[in-house]
Design goal:
The protein has about 210 residues and is mainly β. The chain is built from one helix and 16 strands. The chain has one domain: Porin (Beta Barrel), CATH 2.40.160.
């Protein structure tokens, strides 16, 4: 279902791009993530982790589809993860290449333009690591399914999927400032064969970024 949604969104973007290529603009963006991992342990208790900061940077396009409305596809590199509240050394790190596709409302406001947008994103993990209470760092492995519960340790799903929200302002100089929010919908914990529990972890983040349109 998630793949179908993405394909529909990508197809819409391609057709819109072809129809509006002459007025499409391109931009760059970079900023900070305030990131956490939220979920439940195997018996259904909430997992309480500590936020950590990361980065996001990349490029996007704005394709006009109606007055003041745009489709905004992009490609971003984004770092995510969380820290343990009780053990200072425990640290979870994940790095993603993300493809957000937002519907952007961009009306004139003063000398610039208001930015309001939402849409889905798909992330592909390109790296990650876990540091335990002793300070030992181990690289994550990526898989959707493992044979046993013991083999699930140190393994996460590579694909992530979720929703974006953005709010910001673009100056007449084409420089913009933006607040971002992401809600991950994919359980990053791989499935164990012939076993079911309530262990879930999902990405959640807020962030700020600065961009420029060419």
């Amino acid at each position: 279902m998630k793949t179908k949604v993405l394909l529909i969104a990508l197809t819409t973007t391609v057709f819109a791009f072809g129809a509006k290529a002459q007025s499409t603009t391109f931009g760059v963006r970079a900023g900070l993530n305030i990131q956490n991992l939220n979920g439940k342990d195997g018996v259904g208790n909430d997992i309480n982790l500590k936020i950590k900061t990361g980065i996001n940077l990349g490029v996007n396009a704005e394709i006009p589809v109606a007055p003041d409305f745009y489709v905004q596809p992009g490609v971003l590199f984004s770092t995510k993860g969380a820290k343990d509240k009780n053990f200072r050394k425990i640290n979870y790190r994940l790095s993603y290449i993300e493809v957000p596709i937002n519907l952007l409302f961009k009306p004139e406001l003063g000398d610039g333009k208001l930015l309001l947008g939402f849409g889905p994103y798909v992330g592909i993990a390109v790296g990650g690591s876990y540091t335990d209470a002793n300070g030992t760092k181990t690289d994550y492995k990526f898989d959707n399914k493992v044979p046993t519960v013991a083999q699930r340790i140190g393994v996460v799903r590579r694909m992530d999927f979720g929703g974006n929200l953005l709010f910001g302002y673009e100056l007449s100089s084409k420089l913009s400032f933006q607040f971002n929010a992401q809600l991950g919908m994919t359980n990053l914990v791989p499935k164990v064969e012939n076993y079911t529990d309530k262990f879930k972890l999902k990405n959640t983040s807020f962030g700020v970024s600065v961009g420029y349109r060419f």
